[in-house]
């Protein structure tokens, strides 16, 4: 892992994982030991948990947009907020 400043894009990324946890009631990468998780993520930076089909399609799409690898392609939080409002 590299040390970088926290950004709005990293907040969007983190929010995607929060949505995943709330919607699935699971911890991402829960099968990996706590002491090995950083090493796992460093070796597998593109691996994301699979969002189950029980989560509405629009939310799966939103989560995937938010945790995309390229920070510049992540949506702004205002877009995320609007999507959440419009679909509830």
TrEMBL record:
SUPFAM superfamilies the UniProt entry points to: Protein kinase-like (PK-like)
PROSITE patterns, alphabetized: PROTEIN_KINASE_DOM
Pfam families given in the database record: PK_Tyr_Ser-Thr
Domain Protein kinase: 1-88
A Gene Ontology molecular function term of the record: ATP binding
InterPro entries, per the entry: Kinase-like_dom_sf (IPR011009), Prot_kinase_dom (IPR000719), Ser-Thr/Tyr_kinase_cat_dom (IPR001245), Ser/Thr_Kinases-Pseudokinases (IPR051681)
Protein name per its UniProtKB record: Protein kinase domain-containing protein
Organism taxonomic ancestry: Eukaryota, Metazoa, Ecdysozoa, Nematoda, Chromadorea
């Amino acid at each position: 892992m590299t040390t970088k400043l926290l950004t709005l894009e990293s907040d969007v990324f983190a929010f995607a994982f929060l949505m995943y946890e709330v919607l699935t009631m699971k911890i991402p990468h829960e099968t990996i030991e706590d002491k090995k998780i950083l090493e796992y993520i460093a070796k597998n930076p593109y691996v994301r948990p699979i969002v189950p089909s029980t989560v509405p399609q629009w939310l799966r799409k939103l989560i995937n947009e938010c945790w995309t690898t390229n920070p510049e392609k992540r949506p702004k939080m205002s877009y995320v907020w609007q999507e959440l409002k419009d679909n509830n």
